[in-house]
Amino acid sequence: MKRFSGFLLKEFLHIIRDTRTMLILFLIPIFQILIFGYVIKNEVKDAKIGIIDMSHDNVTEEITARLDAAVDFNVVREYRNYEEAESGFRANEIKAVVVFADNFANDLGKYRSADVQILLDASDPNLANLINSYISVILNKYSHEKIQTGTPALVSTEPRMWFNENLHSAYMFVPGTMALILMLITALMSSISIAREKENGTMEILLVSPLKPIQIILGKLTPYAVLSIVNVISILVIGNVVFGVPVNGSWVLLLLSSFLFILLALSLGLLVSTVVKTQQTAMFISILGLMLPTMLLSGFIFPIENMPVILQYLSYIVPAKYFLIIIKSIMLKGLGLDYIINEVLILISITVGLIALSVLKFKTRLE
Amino acid sequence: MAEIEINNLYKSYGDVKALDNVCLSVEKNGFCGLIGPDGAGKTTLMRVITSLLVPDSGEISIGGLDPIKEYKKLRLKLGYMPGKFSLYQDLSVEENLRFFAGVFGTSIKENYHLIKNIYSHIEPFKNRRAGKLSGGMKQKLALSCALIHKPEILILDEPTTGVDAVSRREFWEMLGEIRNYGITILVSTPYMEEAVLCDQVSLLFDGKVVESGTPKQIVERFSSTIFAVKTVNIPASLKVLRNMEDAKSVNSFGQNIHVVFNDGNHSVEQITNYLIKNNITDAKVSIINAGIEDCFIDYIIRQNKN
Amino acid sequence: MYRENIIEVENLVKKFGDFTANDNLCFEVKKSEIFGFLGANGAGKTTAIKILCGLLFPTSGKVMVAGYDVYKKRHEIRKNIGYMSQGFSLYEDLTVKENIEFYAGIYGLKRSEIKTRFEDLVQKLGIDELKNKFVRDLPLGWKQKIAFSVAIFHKPQIVFLDEPTSGVDPITRRQFWDLIYEAVESGITVFVTTHYLDEAEYCDRVCIMAEGRIDAIGTPDELKARFQSKNMDEVFVKIARGK
After folding, report:
1. What does pTM read for this prediction?
2. CA distances from A307 to A120, A125, A343, B1 (A)
3. Is the ipTM here above 0.85?
4. Chains A/C: 3 or more C-beta pairs closer than 8 A?
5. Which fold does the domain A47-162 belong to in CATH?
């Protein structure tokens, strides 16, 4: 135990004394979340949308008024038919069109549902997806209110953003940023720090010492696990204070699942470090093999549904995808463990597999 | 059995034979030097001994243990200083030492007597970062770190490379002191002149042990006569002497030139006259005893001929 | 015999923050001499060489190399010097020929000139079989010899060699010095650092550095006489102990 605590002390000293490491650990997460927050927040603001209203009753008009009143939208025109709407798209007058079917209010009364169609300019799939979500939320919010007042509800086409009622985009990127930062700190930093020992030749001494491989591994990884937890908490606090992102579900569950993801990222970092000899290659592999998929294939920046099929399949092996589902469910929807049990189990099995693999690959010798 | 006992050891990296039928035997409390240029196989041999590499074939026993099967027990007995300086540059002198003591489950206090003579030189700077120490001080710290757990066998890979001549000399003096604690020492170096400071040496070249024995035995085995030519004009004399009939090797050694012939029919007078005939008039020729470097050069020349 | 100075250094100081790497250095190097720079790692040798090559500006002091001021004429200086660093300057993934052609091209040599000089070099070193091999496949000794040939391929006035022989076998080390002698014969001035004290004897003059300062400077014979020593090894020890 004394051996191990000495090792931990040394690791913390390395981290504290290296300004670059400290910057990556503490400033980058904060900057990243602030930058993503403000950039994405402005994206949908005042998006121009059009209306095709085949019913023109009090319900459709009320909804139209609400869309127009929302900060994110500006209802600029009403079109008579699809052809007119299409030319509107082509002229870049609008980003989306909301279509109300015939007899809208009647259907709603009779069948407790009515048809709304959302047409989107998908040349910018991200924006289209966001707009789609926001419109759906407004529609759903309207229907929720009607349920409370006893009037029948309506069903929207795409209720993806159901729980993001305030329409803040920060809600979407806080989980993504968290996944990215955890990957950055845990996998990248830990693999670099192990590679550094190899480069300096100190790994040779550690291997020749009575330290067990598992002690070396834990000694190298524990500091990064601790710091990652600190980062998770600071991201959640910044998300809450600056962007008003709530944690609707259980904090314990949220922290536990974050810790699960940290373990997974650490074992990835460990695996990387077992195959590389220099800090440079460690960085290269971590960024290319771990960070980029986390950013691009997890659904954080590009919606998975909009990807080519082959990338969609590829996204199944990106752990961040499951992590995003888990924390979105906990933070935004306030769901419990029973709703995310599949994703949690997937992450657990990946983690166990990776740890086993890297412990097997961690050499007690130099080759 | 000897403390380090190696027989017919082979180790290859692809086509390169890093160790080619290496035999080595060092008694308990022995002091053995591995001498050879870069790429001779010194580091590979040391890594096999420290259980960091597994040999392709051969017998090996270190401290009575098998480094392949019993590496965990063996590692407790070893003190190792790898070739690339293995200190944490961002930790202070004392933090480094404390860390390495801790790794072996001991403390600085417990074994301070072992390192006292070495560490006292750097103790005044104990709060300085290791990265800011001079080469000689770094080397002393690295040695202290390798000794702090009281190893039975100390393996030092080129501890004096890149260090100034004075620190090098001090370092060898310190190694002599360490022997008083009954520790077996194996040290490698590319500096031939350091060989005489060991009890026994093995000369390594291209993965093979070229010569081994006490320094005295090795130089005594050198059978040819060496003529030393002392002159101020070394480049010109080298050229002249190399043109001499029957010259086997003509090499500069500091202020002298060492000349070895293929047969024994040469004399000091003959060489002096030859040099004068070729306008080198200041040369003083004498017969000298071989040094380790002469033996090494002789081996390489024989190799190149074959 | 009077020889002109090719390097003149007066009161050279180089500081990195609080750290003084070169503390008031004064020396000159004469044309076509072998000037040895001795001292431990960290004594300030590499810093001084980098200043002389125009890679670093001095903090203060006067430094003239090949008749040019290092403050103003770095470009001219670089045309007139060759440099071989500790970490080799050859590209491992290029062949010997490609390396030489590349470096010769940098110095603006004409194609015909490169061709004839290259053929001479191949003959002189006997590297006909090696010339189309990748540098990474060559033994260390050859790499060093070829790196040196590259450094003087453009026939500079001065060549700087930073520990060119560390770690090579005794024969290669001497072959390397044969190359140095040849270069000097052709009029090149050689500025060399080394840890091998026997090599200090091969220099026309040596300069012994410690902690950024020059402790002693002179011909090997002068130094041996001054410190009443048999060889440079003893000179070194006496200087260190005398402090």
Report:
1. 0.78
2. 17, 10, 21, 69
3. no
4. no
5. abc type-2 transporter like fold (3.40.1710)
